[in-house]
Amino acid sequence: MNPIIIDTDPGQDDAIALLLAAASPELELLGITTVAGNVPLALTTRNARIVMELAGRRDVPICAGADRPLDVPLVTAEHVHGDTGLNGIELPEPTLPTDPRHAVDFIVQTLRERGAGTVTLCPLGPLTNIALALRRAPDIAPRIRRIVLMGGGFFEGGNVTPAAEFNFYVDPRAAHEVFTSGVPITMAPLDVTHEVLTTAARIDAIRRLGTRVGEVVSAWMEFFERYDEEKYGQDGGPLHDPCVIAFLLQPALFTSRDCNVRIETASELTRGMSVIDWWGVTGLPANAQVLRHADSDGFFALLTERLARL
Ligand code: BDR
Ligand code: CA
């Protein structure tokens, strides 16, 4: 089994990533840490609890983390995800308790307890908690097996500004510190997540599972996709965060290239931009595996089959 910690700001696409992980026996879900991003921290934590309750996984600790980025004010995305972050269907308030540990303490403690090089971190939101953990306990860096994250964009540009993707835009300093930490990184940028679209036929297949999870996920997808459908004039919205979990389960669904990646922190115009040296023009060493294309039919076959297990 592959032990992972998911750091997240649910968000419908984060929620679907959590369900995909919860349904997959190849992954040992050690814990979920929450961060402010799509909506404020109190809501991302509540939403993580709702999702794990829906998955029937009351065994996974959920620890709340940073309520704001390192050195800039929080920017949220209610215009994409709705005012709760999980709009699309009415769900009961969760009864699952939050673990009393702070997310950063949980990450540090878990990495120190577990064997060096065994635990993968899966950040699906702004990288604040990960950067804080690396600041507080630099000894954990060599203990992390890999960071597999959703963030950035190169060929697609950005989705918040012309240059920047949301997760890196919200906390550019944290993204910079993670990309210069020396920890091996795999990144799923917009270039790949924009290929994984929730078309009407794919949503129907999930609704036809006939389960509560199928009903909830299809409602979330229909709410979430309307934003990108309007913006890009396409059938379906991008399932960003589930790409991280799908990569862990079936890396062959993705093509990739090892590149040098740097994050802009200073410029107002390009704040949070991921500068990916795709063509190797700088000669700088690669610090990230950058996912480029996805087998989207294979991705949805995997997702649908796994959701059917819940
Ligand atoms: C990222 O931003 C959030 O809105 C999504 O959950 C995803 O993590 C996409 O830019
Ligand atoms: Ca997210």
TrEMBL record:
Pfam families: IU_nuc_hydro. The keyword Hydrolase applies. SUPFAM superfamilies: Nucleoside hydrolase. It comes from the Bacteria. The keyword Glycosyltransferase does not apply. InterPro entries: I/U_nuclsd_hydro_CS (IPR015910), Inosine/uridine_hydrolase_dom (IPR001910), IUNH (IPR023186), Ribo_hydro-like (IPR036452). Keywords: Aminotransferase, Glycosidase, Hydrolase, Transferase. CDD domains: nuc_hydro_IU_UC_XIUA. Residues 4-300 form the Inosine/uridine-preferring nucleoside hydrolase domain. GO terms for molecular function: hydrolase activity; transaminase activity. PANTHER family: INOSINE-URIDINE PREFERRING NUCLEOSIDE HYDROLASE (PTHR12304), URIDINE NUCLEOSIDASE (PTHR12304:SF4). This is Nucleoside hydrolase. It comes from Pelomonas caseinilytica.
